[in-house]
Write a structure and sequence with these properties.
Helix 6 crosses helix 7. About 20% of the residues lie in helices and about 30% in strands. The protein has 2 domains: about 230 residues, Spore Coat Polysaccharide Biosynthesis Protein SpsA, Chain A (Alpha-Beta Complex), CATH 3.90.550.10; about 110 residues, UDP N-Acetylglucosamine Acyltransferase, domain 1 (3 Solenoid). It has a 7-stranded mixed β-sheet, with helices on both faces. Strands 14-17-20-23-26-29-31 form a 7-stranded parallel β-sheet, with no helix packed on it. It is built from 8 helices and 31 strands. The chain is an alpha/beta fold.
Length: about 350
């Protein structure tokens, strides 16, 4: 089998952060989401992976490279415009050939591995396998309706009135018949070739489309709140270790990971939390569910339930920062300007001045 990761799109719901960065490279638990997807596919025994890229392709290539760091071979497949998931399959045919493959959206975070699913599909006669989960707002997703025997009856993309609460979670498995399906459908009202239409084509032509219902958590990280929630979930599953320095006046609980080169000075860190490489925490409080990436500084400040990207600084802030997504090379410091409560989604290279007490 081969793997196909879709990593195009503009990430508009994460503006301004994604004006300057691919959303798939935002880290949760201090690891880019795209890297988590690559590792999940690799752990399922797949080493040949194609990544469909768009406007942020150069950044993705720079970070991911040829995949050798993860013992996989990466092939990049440019998509000239976000013309739909089925279009991404169509342009990937030369890479995929006649191999069965798993397709994974590059901005999804899911609990547990996909190895059992891949093994089931590889050893089965299924023409396709889709992964579903029950959601509270199915109108935001592609939705499946199942027959009494569990087989797929029909699918619909982002319906105004959802016929079920079973959403497609962005993991699909196909054999070569999917290429006939994508050639047999037309663009939707959105101007895209919808993967739900292609799967429906398979169902209508009596191909075996198997549904698997995922029981664990799954998060589509398309919005800041969802990204922070995904970070919280991942932090709870880390294997914690201390590779950095903690001085004697600091308090760090057992559910905290301190990466190499990091320093914690006269500070309190409550887990689950992770402090990235070469980051300094000085006279500060880092609360639960916080990820601070590499080469950052948090000094005379408090932060919790937030994500801070690399090379950012939070200094001399008189009030706690919570539920925030802070980009790269950001500086947040005290200034003489009001108001007094803080909640941030900051893009790269931002500078924010905060109230002086």
């Amino acid at each position: 089998m081969k793997g196909l990761i879709l990593s195009g799109g503009k990430g508009t719901r994460l503006y301004p952060l994604t004006f300057t960065s691919a959303k798939q490279l935002i880290p949760v638990g201090n690891k880019p989401i795209l890297v988590r997807v690559i590792e999940s596919i690799r752990d399922a025994g797949i080493s040949e992976i194609g990544i469909v890229i768009g406007d942020t392709g150069n950044e993705i290539k720079k970070i991911i490279g040829d995949g050798s760091r993860w013992n996989v071979n990466i092939t990049y497949i440019p998509q000239v415009a976000p013309l739909g998931l089925a279009h991404a399959v169509k342009i990937s045919q030369d890479f995929l050939g006649e191999d069965r493959f798993v397709m994974f959206l590059g901005d999804n975070v899911i609990q547990g591995g996909i190895s059992p699913l891949i093994a089931d599909f590889a050893d089965s006669d299924y023409n396709s396998q889709i992964v579903l989960t029950r959601v509270n707002h199915p109108e935001r997703y592609g939705v499946a309706v199942l027959k009494e025997n569990g087989q797929v009856e029909y699918l619909v993309e982002k319906p105004k009135e959802a016929p079920s609460n079973l959403a497609l979670v962005g993991i699909y498995m196909f054999d070569k018949n999917i290429f006939e399906a994508v050639r047999g459908i037309r663009p939707s009202w959105r101007g895209e070739l919808e993967i739900t239409d292609a799967i429906q084509w398979l169902v209508d032509h009596d191909y075996d489309v198997h549904a698997y219902i995922h029981r664990g958590w799954w998060i589509d990280t398309g919005e800041p709140g969802e990204m922070i929630e995904a970070n919280c979930r991942v932090l709870e599953e880390l294997e914690y270790h201390i590779h950095g320095y903690i001085d004697r006046s600091s308090e760090v609980d057992l559910r905290v990971m301190i990466e190499k080169g990091a320093e914690v000075i006269n500070s309190i860190i409550r887990g689950p939390a992770i402090i990235g490489e070469n980051t300094r925490i000085v006279n500060a409080f880092v609360g639960p569910f916080t990820s601070i990436y590499h080469d950052c500084l948090v000094e005379n400040a408090e932060i919790s339930r937030s994500i801070v990207l690399e090379n950012s600084q939070i200094r001399n802030v008189g009030r706690r920062i919570e539920d925030s997504l802070i980009g790269r090379d950001v500086i947040i410091h005290r200034s003489p300007i009001r108001p007094k409560s803080f909640k941030f989604t900051l893009g790269d290279n931002s500078v924010v001045g905060l109230l002086s007490e």
